[in-house]
Specification:
Elements: E1 3-8, H1 13-20, H2 22-27, H3 30-37, E2 43-52, E3 59-66, H4 71-76, H5 79-96, E4 100-103, H6 106-109, H7 115-120, E5 124-126, H8 129-146, E6 155-159, H9 164-174, E7 179-183, H10 187-199, E8 204-208, E9 219-222, E10 241-244, H11 253-258, E11 263-266, E12 269-271, E13 274-277, E14 288-290, H12 291-302, H13 316-329, E15 332-333, E16 337-338, E17 341-342, H14 345-357
Parallel strand pairs: 1-3, 1-4, 4-5, 6-7, 6-9, 7-8, 9-10, 10-11
Antiparallel strand pairs: 2-3, 2-13, 12-14, 12-15, 16-17
Helix pairs in contact: 8-9, 8-12, 8-13, 9-10, 12-13
The structure holds NADP nicotinamide-adenine-dinucleotide phosphate.
NADP nicotinamide-adenine-dinucleotide phosphate binds at residues 105-106, 108-109, 128-129, 132, 160, 162-166, 184-186, 189, 223-226, 230, 245-247, 268, 290-292, 312.
């Protein structure tokens, strides 16, 4: 049977360690978990079964493997040390028989976006970022439509536009947005991305180094590796639709609590074809997964065992191609979710009502 492996890592150290080791997770303080993670080898988490292509009926299997570093640890440690641990996890995937390896969350963010890791391994490697970008844009369409927002008539902001996912999300959205606002931290890199985005843009493309400027946007995608809590309530205009692709999230639940006029939701979630069992609870309903996992699975259904998405400059053509491939095998956009809950029509109607009737007393700057 064709097979894949996918690497994940703890996002919330206490909660995630408790999922695998209930007693240790309960007893160890967070800073001890951070410290110990450096010396822990990669962990076999589970065997994934039951995923079946809607197009061909082909069944695949897979494995979840954990790299024990937390996100802040991965950003702080020398890249070479982090690569070593991810490569060790990749070797475990090879021994299990996987033909393609997906790099989850910060294992794809760190260093050169998977290139060094792919060079060191014998099996194909992908970050899954292409399909993540495609699914985030699909989710944004669904949310904007339900909020009655026409992308062609509005400003769409991308926070983290200089990143791998952000850059290509910006290109894809700019093809239809009335105006596209790209927010980044590095002037030169932002200008470079801006040129690329402008090439396929329908409307004006504006660059900003100041996140406060997202107040101009009715629609916001945030996709950074800031490590959480980057987007504050005062940055967002009334009635904004906010798609948070980042893990850890850029938008904290306190923002959603403080602002009942905002539609904040997780970007990048899909339903898996067949009756999949991931064998491990990573915080989603059983038949749902992240776009990056789904990309790895779609390549396996197709038998395309090649390095697909690597590096920081993604290709729009590859994003469009994996979107078609995943749809062919039966991956579908999942219902919108916000802070571990599904957003139903009643909740969205409430947000719309608050957006229409609320007092706009948000302080800018
Ligand atoms: N939900 C999913 O399925 C899924 C899949 C893949 C990735 N992700 C998540 O998506 C996010 C981005 O991934 P990526 O691969 O695109 O990462 P990336 O290529 O490293 O890009 C990260 C972006 O974040 C910006 N950034 C970092 N720290 C920041 C801060 N403190 N303030 C403002 N901007 C900051 C970077 O700016 P500079 O260019 O200035 O450094 C860059 O634009 C990560 O959180 C990752 O976990 C989610």
């Amino acid at each position: 049977m064709d097979s894949f492996a996918f690497i994940i890592h703890p996002v919330d150290p206490k909660r995630d360690v408790t999922r695998k080791y209930p007693l240790l997770g309960k007893l160890l303080p967070v800073d001890v978990i951070h410290f110990v993670s450096r010396f822990w080898p990669p962990l076999y988490l589970s065997h994934i079964t039951g995923a079946r292509s809607a197009a061909t009926g082909k069944e695949i299997e897979g494995w979840l493997i954990a790299v024990p570093y937390t996100a802040p640890r991965m950003l702080r440690l020398p890249s070479r040390e982090v690569y070593r641990k991810i490569i060790a996890a990749g070797r475990m995937a090879e021994e299990l028989g996987a033909q393609v390896l997906g790099l989850g969350a910060y294992t794809a963010v760190v260093g050169d976006g998977g290139r060094t890791i792919a060079q060191a391994l014998d099996i194909a490697v992908t970050t899954g970022d292409s399909y993540t970008a495609a699914v985030a844009v699909q989710a944004l369409h669904s949310a904007a439509e339900r909020m009655g927002i026409d992308l062609q008539q509005t400003t769409v902001a991308v926070v983290g536009a200089t990143g791998a996912v952000g850059g290509v999300v910006a290109q894809k959205l700019a093809r239809e947005a009335g105006r596209t606002l790209l927010v980044g931290r590095r002037r030169e890199r932002l200008a470079e991305v801006g040129e690329r985005v402008q090439a396929s843009a329908r409307g004006e493309v504006v660059l900003s180094l100041d996140i406060n400027d997202i107040r101009e946007a009715e629609v916001v995608v945030t996709v950074t590796s800031a490590g959480g809590n980057l987007v504050r309530p005062e940055y967002l205009r009334r009635g904004a639709v906010v798609c948070d692709v980042s893990r850890p999230r850029d938008v904290s639940w306190q923002v959603a609590q403080a602002r009942d006029d905002l539609l904040v939701f997780d970007g990048g979630l899909v339903r898996v074809p067949g009756t999949v069992d991931f064998g491990f609870n990573y915080g989603l309903p059983p038949d749902m997964t992240f776009g990056c996992v789904a990309e790895t699975m779609a390549l396996t259904f197709e038998g395309r065992f090649e390095d697909y998405t690597l590096g920081k400059d993604l290709s729009l053509e590859k994003v469009d191609a994996i979107e078609v491939l995943a749809a062919k095998h039966g991956f579908r956009l999942a219902a919108l979710r916000s802070f571990e809950r599904q957003l139903d029509d009643a909740m969205i109607e409430k947000v719309k009502l608050h957006a229409r009737t609320g007092v706009d007393d948000i302080v800018t700057g």
